[in-house]
Design goal:
mainly beta, 5-stranded mixed β-sheet, 58% strand
Length: 65
């Protein structure tokens, strides 16, 4: 059995003007079958879009408020 290829996803919410940003949660997620990180993710029934990957290897998703 193969071990899942995981990444750490951080979910942030940001205001429309981008001045306020706060972290909602982080969790381990599985990559796509081809090894890529999904561009969209669902967390607590809401859709988040990929924003960036930071230097620590955390993939950051955002949702506009």
């Amino acid at each position: 059995m193969e071990r899942a290829d995981l990444f750490t996803a951080q979910f942030d919410e940001v205001s429309d003007n981008g001045r306020r940003r706060f972290m909602v949660a982080t969790e381990l997620r599985e990559r796509e079958a081809d090894g890529s990180i999904p561009a969209r993710a669902w967390f607590n029934g809401e859709e988040f879009e990929l924003d960036a990957e930071d230097d620590d290897g955390i993939t950051i998703y955002v949702r506009q408020l």
